[in-house]
Amino acid sequence: MKGSVDEGLCMGHGMCAALAPGVYEVSELGTNEMGDFEVPPGAEAAARRGARACPERAIVLDENENVSVA
Ligand code: SF4
After folding, report:
1. What parts of the chain have a pLDDT lower than 50?
2. Alpha helix locations (H) across the chain?
3. Nearest CA to ligand 1 atom 3
4. Which residue, 11, 36, 54, 68, has most beta carbons within 10 Å?
């Protein structure tokens, strides 16, 4: 699963990394500067929790990535 963080929206609340430390990293200022990233295999649920917790809706996850077209 891929995701991306809009650094222009991120206000440094740090909720993403608090809820999903294996997925999200924040800087010393508390801002998430990951940009486009790959969710580690098996961490999809944690990634969703972290994204939902973001008050700025700065994290977008690609839920359709593994859907194959017949
Ligand atoms: S929860 Fe959202 S606003 Fe807070 S650090 Fe993470 S991406 Fe940024």
Report:
1. none
2. 15-19, 44-53
3. 10
4. 54
Pull the structure tokens for residue 47.
């990634």
For the chain, which domains are there?
Answer: 2-62 (3.30.70.20)
For ligand 1, the distance from its centroid to the CA atom of residue 19, given in whole angstroms, is 11
Residue 23 in contact with ligand 1 by CB distance below 6 A: no
Q: Is the CB of 15 under 6 A from ligand 1?
A: yes
Tell me what percent of the residues of the chain surpass a pLDDT of 70.
93
Q: Is the CB of 18 under 6 A from ligand 1?
A: no
Query: Residue 45 — φ and ψ, nearest 5°?
Result: -65, -40
Query: Which residue is associated with the tokens 């909720």?
Result: 15
Instruction: State the amino acid at position 2 in one-letter form.
Output: K
CA–CA–CA angle 40, 14, 52 (5° rounding): 65
